[in-house]
Protein 1
Amino acid sequence: MKPASTALTPVLVGDTGGVTANPATPGVRGSPGQPGGSGLTGDARSSGEPGLSARARSSAPVGSAVGSSATDFAGPESGGPKSGGPKPGNPDSASRAALTTGPEPPTSLEPVQASSRQTPGPGAQPSIGLTARADAEQGLAFVGAILRAGISLEIVIGTYSGVGLSSHPAAYLALSGLALGISVWLVLSVLRRRTMLTGGWRYADLGIAFVGTVAMRWLLPPDQLVGQWTNWPGGLATNSMAVAAVWLPSMAASLSVSLVMAFCSIVAVYDVVQPHQHPTLFANALIYVTFALTVRIFTTYLRSIAIRADESHQAAVAAVQAMELDRYRILVHDATGILRQLGDHRTPAVLRPALQRQALAESVRLRNYLSDKLANPPAGHGGTTLGRILGDATAGFTDLPLEMSVDLGAGVVLEETRALALGRAISTLLHNVRRHAHADTVFVHADCDARHWEVVVRDDGVGFDPLSTPLGFGLSVQVMHALRECGMVCRLDARPDVGTSVTIEGTIEGTTGAARQADPTASPPGPGDGTPTVKAAGDRLAT
């Protein structure tokens, strides 16, 4: 299913064959490439492309001649058309390199920079309803509002009882009304804006709690100062400490404010209450500090969870967008290559019938993509034989001088995921041969033993030097990466003016163990980076 948030608009740009990396408007990039590109690796110049999504790999049937291929137009440009003269007779005298991949974790997707997302600080009020952090702030605000609503009711009840006992009833009523007004405003602010008090109202809320705690010494008789509802500032101060712990900038600030409140509550009435009430007075003061620290710790923990949830969500969205972009890139890579050759007046007439058939197949595949109808095999499918995979993959390349020798491995059965990846890889290689190799002969060979199968695609074209020419999207992603993800091994051997050979190897279904290992003389893979290993010139190709 394509995410609704991902906009992928195909844009053909002149003579192109690659794909841009911009998820917003992924177009197609590259240049036609000069004649004499490198055989099986015509995409060698464009590198560093994102990886292959599993859905994209399975978006075309094996039977399509272009179901897995893409002509790469950003190929090596150092060579020229193959001359009519003989090739060098000594292979060891030419520059030679081998590249080996095995079943390693994919590394082509670029790291998601989730940390670049700005997150509001402790005192900030993020947009409500957009992030987990905003939801956390909203939850804290509603909890504070519910508690303050209870405190407001306590103020009303305490004032009703205390106004008749107060020595200054007017001042007592004025202070109660002011506290009640700020509390009601806090509750309404949360209900209307879903945020705590902002700006000066925060300090007004703290101020009325401090003033009320101290003023009760002169407004109420001593017997009403400890443990009585008429002394409502005690409950208000407890709630104010909790609310302040949400918006104060740090744990130290919350602790400092609560300690000052505790100190004021003790000093204000210590000398006017009975000695037996002193323990209760200290216990009440300790509640301010306890509430402030508890709420602050909980708030910090809740915010950290929300921030991590937001970062994980953004990373997941970016990963889905990257996977969808990969799917799109692989899909249009094939079509743009074929269209470019059809539109090029230099394309020989003998190639056009095959290209037209492939263009028709590509149009069907693109329509399926736009309608989200993928050519995935039904569950429980019995697999496809290696002979059929190779026959389907090579069917659209009647213009190439193919020499097929697949009888020895034709009966091997591959499950559909591997069959799709292998068919696409073979077609990609043959597209590159057509585009760049200028080969006299292209050999396709298949073989197997009791546990393993092997396919070799080799041309006697112009070749190239992998040590100096980076691999591009088609070979690195549609061949190397796709095969590696499916548990197959792919080895590349290329030499300028000699040709290019690609060996693909896998385990026969129903047997245990990995595919045959590369030659022990081959250089080991890079240190955990999942990248292919390039052998030095003159090394023997692993078998």
Protein 2
Amino acid sequence: MQRTWHLAEGYAETAWAFVWLCLIYVFVPPAPLVPDFSDATWQAWLTEAFLRRLSFGTSVVFTYGPWGFLAEPRGSLEILPWLRVGRLVLAAGTSVGAGILFARLIERPVLRYVTLTAFLTLANPILILPVLLALAVFDFRLGLPRTLAFFLIPSCALASHVKFTSLWLLAVLAILLLAKEVALDRRFPWQALTLAVCYAAWFLAAGQSLAGLPSYLRAASLISGGYEGAMALAGPASFPVLGLLLVFLVCWMAFANMLRSRSWSYAAGSAWLAFALFAGFKMTFVRNEADHYWLGMGEFLLPVALVISLLPGARLHIVLRAAVATLAAVLTVVPYQCQILRLAARRAWTPLTLLSSDVPLRVAETRAKEEVRRRFPLPNLSNSVDLAPLGHCIGLAYDWNLKVRPVPVSYGTYSSRLASLNEHFFRSPDAPEYLVLALRPIDNHYPTLEDSLAWRTWLAGYQPVRATPDFVILERRPRDLQVRVDEPHEIRAAFGQQMELPKAYARELVWARIRISSPFPLSILGRIWRPEILRLEVRSELGTRTYRFIPGAAESGFLLSPLVDSLDSMASLFPGGDSQAPPADVRSIALHRTEAFPATYSSTYSLSFERMVLTRDGEPVSPPQPGTGDRTSATRVGASDTSRP
């Protein structure tokens, strides 16, 4: 029997929820710049891109939207007013939805407030808002006010411009909502229309143009499509099994309620919840490591499982709730040394941390920049600069005139279309005058597979001028060299088969293309879950080494030989580079499978080798051989000018 609904209870819970979110979420300042090559790189650039009003979808192509800085704010304090406004909107929607929902679901006041506080401490508003909206618009027999959806819609629309995961959740929800209003309720789709208007309004508020919206949505689809194949990590297998069991049990509860209610609205809502839970499962376990475990399990799956387990249901739910509670406890405590508990406790401790800090924000920002410059002493670059594959915190710390490629981190160019965006940028008149190049591939990627097509443009359009222990600094040539590619040497190979490079390619730049097909049933598995992880075995003069292979980046071509394994070998690739440490030739390669499941590729693949020659006015311009190089150029590359702005 359902208890009587008291609106005043919803007001009280909403007020507490809003206060708590302000303390742990809204009033948290941007994180400072840090002297490393971690995720802080793209976090700082998202903040800068918003302040510059860069066009997302053309000038910035990433897994976050124009309001992406709301997820992980970092860098300039100029973002603080926008950060406060954006997070206030997200907190307001979350507090209204969660406050009214928990007032309806839990009768005992003390238990209600404790559970609500735990839910808010864990849940990420950006991810949880679409779930709250689904519970408000579909008939889950909760008796929620019909006007609740209109309080949630503006916050949900903003969340969809932060992270593309929220965008896809909201897109599917909007389609179901439109069908419900038109087909089931037989009324004008006010809620769907309001959602569309709010979505456009937040897009405009970020300095974007409605004319650029199609490009933005295409970029969102493009960069989301190949993520699993390039960024997947095969962590402990037991955690995904337990996570999938948790998702199954929660879905079982939702669908049991649906069958009992015999409501089309409940069916549509349950179907969407199943989609959202599976999306959360992929977000947690495709990249099976600690940070994504917290993002997917801690900030999304556990809060959603809590809410669904509290929905009114049959007696069977007592057993299911006990099973879900047991699994949730195991997944909270066991993986990654209590990662979820530790981070949740740190978040709950945020108010005291902010109160105990006696360092003004401006002083902390200045100190952070000084620390970055101390860790990475670099020359004063007065013209436009980009940094690859990462490192934008460093450019911001030096107040350089950053002119960053569309895909701002090189590991994000995991398909031929994404790689071509950066290649076209470096070929255009907008290309930066300087390129500060490091050797920092993630996940043991083969180095030249990151920004694979751009390497060809870098070799032709830039020349090394200085080197430091961490970077090679390239300057744009007055006139680009031409790139000549010989007739390709094509072969068909099987996984595990060693393929020798033609001996005629010794001491030459070798461009390779590798195409791996995926038959229809296997390709579906790869899209639903993820493709299998492949390894590239490379044999060179330095011995045998194994790297992570990215099929999407290799389709359109990448620099296979020489092997770039150090800054010295990277500098030696460029005409005018240091001739005393030439890179090693690659002699043979082999692709290896590493997993029995999922096996998503055919047993053979096509491979082509092409000799790439740099020319000036038709004459070859190759990197100098050992002992024959231009000593002036080599000295310039080896110089260490540590002057600062």
Protein 3
Amino acid sequence: MIAQCAVFVIILCTCVSTILPAQLVLEKPKLSAEDVLLVALDINPDDLNALYNLGQLYLNENQPEEARTYLDRALKLDDGNPDILVARARVHMLHPDHLDIHGLRTGAHKYLRKAVTIDLSHKPACYYLALASMYARLDRRDLKRAQRLLQQVADADADFKDVHFYNASVQNFDQPKPEDAKAFRDILRRNPDHAAAGIRLAETLFYTPELTDTDTLALACKYYTDGLENLSDPFELLRVTKDFGILLNKKQEQELHTLEPAKRGAWLVRYWRTQDPTPGTELNERLVEHYRRMQYAYEAFPTLNGNDRFDDRGWTYIKYGEPDERFIGNGLGHINSKGLTGGQVYENESWTYFSIDRYLYFDFVDKGGFTYFPSLDHALMAGSDIPYQTLYEDRQVLGYIYRKIAREGEFYLMNFDVQRDNFIEEKPSIYVYDYDGSKPLDFIYDTGLFRAPEDFTHLELYYGAPLKDFKFSPDNRGTHEEPMEMCVTFMDEDYLVIETFSQTFEIPKPKDDARKDQYFVAQGDYDLTPGRYNIAVSLRAAESGLWGLYRDSLLVPDYREPVELAVSSIQMSPEVKWPENIAESMYKGGYEVAPHPSLVFLRNDPTVVFYEIYNLTFGPDGLTDYEVTLTVEPLKQGSVLSSIGRLFGGGKEEPTISFTETGSSTMRTDRRATTLDLSRLKTGDRRLMITIRDNISGQTAGVVKEFIIDKPED
């Protein structure tokens, strides 16, 4: 058998062109195209066709590093072959480490320009040179060159590769116009799966400032996210990633760039879902706002060179929006084509965002384009005799930081720079939803998780809002009630919407003398499959112009396991009693447990704790036997500073509550309601810990709840 295999290979090697097809049909195992080409190179290492075809094969299989090896060998044999030059350029276009502006300019560009110089009509060379010029341009001349080359290719062959799409894209490359929409719609009509055309079509709508039609913007969001989800075009992925890179912190950047290029689009889709303030709708207001900011930056802060669309002021505006204060300095000098002329200070500006963070401010200096600098001393021209602190003195109206630097100097400047950099690293962009013209409704929110029938876990969502903000306008019957729309959206770990629940109910107007201090409180009930969820809660009182939004992550445990001891969430309430005309959802095993989502309890009032214990073990007498330990302690109990204070007599240990109860039941599930006396504890944040020990199985389980102790009003 070994000898026969050897003979088989020898025959193929000596008669590849005539015997190979028949042998592939008759013999097993079959040889792949890669094997055939490698065999040919074993016979003749300088076989130019084999080297080129093997490089092309690896390119088509998205293995650019392997392709490079054989194409470099081919170029040594013939460095004037346009086909080989184009293939070698594509190595840079496919390699994830080279697919950036630098890689395209230093790698792909030189091979493609040489190929076009050799053959001006070579369609692949013209096509790929146009793409390299578009996506790695140094100035606007590159876009003009790309436009000319693509039109040349389209005139020669209208169906060549994706020339229709790129020809439509290059017309207004940075900022698609409404008139471009028709071309992208035509492409999508011919190929509904053209992801990049969907993204470009969406951008033509985003970049239309006068467009306010919510339905059209929602459709644009769908085009955009569907396109990103399926985007495989490496050039469009490079463009889109560049636009969003400034919005990410370092951890997110690393996470994105360690992914294979084919997976980056899906990562960006997930990012935009996390930013969507209203995930139950098709419209992603944060995505729309991003493009609104891009549009404004393009028009208000254009760069003077062609390598970028806006200066550093534009990028800052895209990240943080309109500044709280904008100080425009009086530059006493300027730059012309011959260099500096007169004066001592460049044009400069300062932007502050102190409503976001006390250290968030930016100083820009115009040295041929406004650039961000960490210090205003960069605004001083060479030889200037003006102290840089003078520039800070001019800005003292901006607030504490500029006053401090003006008075104290460089030390504080360095300190503030560090604080600012730390904030920017953590939060590289900020967006505050405008609530569609409504006022924010500051509602309270809490959750509880309990066992449910069959394969589900029961989620109880407790929420409420202060009544003092509601108008309670009379309806046509003279009834003073406020309609409240409540919407809960459940999403998976990738923020993909699973289901949205909406309901509208009426809130009756309370007595005027009680309205100031009263909250309306309600409860929503949902049965969920165990797992991890992201949830978004919306409360909207349209007649009063109020809207509240809240997002949370939730781990829903599985209480079905018959062996493992488990305990439900803790529900705390000012009162737990036997039911009297209450909602069914607030009735738990004979108890009425009223929601109390604020989790603020008065020190002198009784506080009742309700919880359930699951999967207890029966003893020989058919009964369960367990112990419950309840402990209330300060939330910051045991910190280093408090320990040092007590050690040296400088502080007192705050009192805690801890006691043990016993229980027994004829059921494997037991429900308990325990009253806590908080009167001897200080006000402040507290932690309640409940630990269950099954005395029969020896298993333990625990649960924790944080709450606040407040003192009654005088």
Protein 4
Amino acid sequence: MPVRTLRRNREGRPPAMQVYHTSRFGLIDPQWPEDYAGVAEVVCTSIEDAYRLTNSIDRAWWENPGVEMLETSPLIQTAPDGTKGFRSTSVGDVVVDLDGEVHRCDDFGWTNLGEEEEATP
């Protein structure tokens, strides 16, 4: 499964945080970056906002302003009515902030996993 699936060229667009979901949802200790795939880019200023905006609360999260769902992600799901989408961001998932720092969502707060390595083509 490709790990780096988010677009890196954002010319003319505001900077965005990157959200990755683990392909091993519900399992203990997914490994970054091997067990992850990109699901969204989110224009926001904090990892907490990226988390909130990629949770379906009042509507599907990919309909939230400032959120761009990655429709080519290998983790996309298809509902019985044919609509496509993702589960909400949850414990074990990752947000890469505007400085390239990788943060894993924990039961309470976040764990900083360090800087993201550059994507390879």
